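Throughout our pipeline, every protein is held as a single compact record rather than as scattered files. The record that follows is passed on verbatim for readers who wish to inspect the format:
___
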Amino acid sequence: MGTEDEKQVLRKYTELGVASIVCGAIGMCCLVLMFLPSISIVHFLVPPLGVLAVIFGAYAYWGMEQDSLGLGGFALGTLLIILWFLLYAYASVTGLAGGTV
């Protein structure tokens, strides 16, 4: 009776759920940092981190054990991709894409 029940209690989050939330958090930091002119190169890191957060989060939540961090990472990655796209489209239309975003 003990081993599987104890595993369920001790293991709350999966590694992919933690990885998805970390990718989403680092991506959000890069999204904020891309407004600083001296570190504008980080805007290239935002889409891959957002995609990784979505993939890891989806697999952790729907593919594995209903990991709540996976769902949070999925939502954060989706928000990250949408915000990056909107900011990049705004910068392209206003002519800011040649310099800093």
